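Problem: given the chain below (314 residues), write out its structure.
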Amino acid sequence: MRHVLERATLLTLTALALIVGLWAIPRPLPPRVSPETVQPKPSPTVPAPSPEVVIPTAARPNYAPLRKAMLDFIAGYPGIRYGIYFKDLISGAAFGINEWQVFPAASTIKVPLVLYLNELVAAGKLDWQDKVVYMSELDWQGGAGALQFFAQDGYKYSLRVLANLTITISDNISTRMLLRYLGKENFKRYLWSMGASVVYPGGRNESTPRDMALYLEAVLNFAKRHPDGRRLLDDMANPIWHVGLPGQLPDHITVAHKEGDLPGVAADIGIVYGSRPYILVVMSEGVPNDEIGFENIATLSKIAYDYQERLAGR
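Solution.
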């Protein structure tokens, strides 16, 4: 992902990973097991989800001024291509800017990947304590994460740990392990089943702002049905990179989100729990550097937040 971290910082992340429950036992590599062939396991007893709060039907606000404010802001950066999608979670009103255009997804794709894992666990096809064996020739990748510094062939990691690392520290190796274990073709079919318009076109990790918003809505809907979904939202609300959508918002505002970046690319997708909760997706390409890329995302997020707070009368 982003930010070339100094070795000392990465070693600190390694310690963090150990604290959250990483454990490894070198053993002979077992045969590859596809989730489709895993026998269903009894689901552990879990508390029933809290009753869903029914929000009365609200008048659909006029979001034309908000859309114009965002257009005016991005017009000041003609060298950067932006895709935006906004949805008010109270009224259901939504709008987009280049929302059907294709952008590099970078690490934002990790949200639907972990959601897919949650769905398989909830269906009893997998268990959070199932282990995945690290295979360096298939799983190693530099960039973000801690596993690159100590994972060795034969080490085993639980699905729960891999899911946590994938979201909270955007660990690239844990992501590759999950994608290998779950099966990329299975994952692609899952994205299509949600109504996605673009899924790995030409094999590239690309998506659209509207599809990313669709995945976020799926996370919210899953959390209403299953307690584990609330744990996914909590992981998204507590990442180590927190400079995009939450960057200019008050500290007490919870933002469940996932940032992603590549050279020239900055993106952040998430749910902002202000007085009027909303989904906001900002994808961009052609940014000169990470700092500008995520500062602009933070500004767009603040524009949306302020508009929502005014609507709420705060």
